[in-house]
Amino acid sequence: MQRLSLDKATLRVRDIDAQVHVFREVLPLLLATPTGAVFELGTDVRGNTQVLMLVKSDNPSPPRRMALEVPNTDFARLCERLIAHGAHLYQSQGSSAPGCAWRVLSCPLPEGHYLQILAIDPSRCAPTTISPTATGA
């Protein structure tokens, strides 16, 4: 997994159990207590582990949209898991440019948050080679 747009890496929530239940479908759980949880997002280029922390709070974070980019090979598995939580799949129906055949899985989370899982499906991208045009002499 790759951190894409989590802004602050801590999410304060009222119902920690409900949030943990959904995030366990997507991310490896590193640590869980009655008042918090830490999930692994991935490793950055320097080898540091990136995490998302959930903290139980009477003053929850305002609703946020969080996005995670995942390899296309993981996308189908995550779709299957998150559709059970009310996720909706959005994907381009063809691409006119290389690298833009995005697939987006938008999943509502408890307390008004949304998690978007993003992947590029190379099989639906436009060709990356451009054929030379004929030149007249």
Can you offer a commentary on this structure?
Helices cover 15% and strands 36% of the residues. The protein has 137 residues and is of the alpha+beta class. It has a single domain (2-124), classed as 2,3-Dihydroxybiphenyl 1,2-Dioxygenase, domain 1, CATH 3.10.180.10. The radius of gyration is 19 Å and the shape is globular. The mean pLDDT is 80. A hairpin with a 5-residue loop joins strand 8 and strand 9. It contains 2 helices and 9 strands, in the order E-E-H-E-E-E-E-H-E-E-E. The protein has helices spanning 16-23, 72-83; strands at 2-3, 10-13, 29-33, 36-43, 49-56, 65-69, 88-91, 102-108, 114-120. The longest helix has 12 residues, at 72-83. The strands form 2 sheets. It has a 5-stranded mixed β-sheet with strand order 1-6-9-8-7, with helices on one face.
Tally of strands: 9
**How many domains would you count in the coordinates?**
1
Radius of gyration: 19 Å
- Give the C-level CATH assignment: Alpha Beta
Label the CATH architecture.
Answer: Roll
Oligomer: single chain
Helix content: 10-25%
Strand content: 35-45%
What would CATH call the homologous superfamily?
A: 2,3-Dihydroxybiphenyl 1,2-Dioxygenase, domain 1
Please state the overall shape, judged from the principal axes of the Cα atoms.
globular
- What structural category characterises the helix and strand content? alpha+beta
Main pleated-sheet profile: 5 strands, mixed
Task: Give the uncertain stretches in residue-range form.
Answer: none
Span from first to last CA? 53 Å
Strand order of the largest sheet: 1-6-9-8-7
The ordered H/E elements are EEHEEEEHEEE
Mean pLDDT: 80
Total number of helices: 2
CATH topology, anyone?
A: 2,3-Dihydroxybiphenyl 1,2-Dioxygenase, domain 1
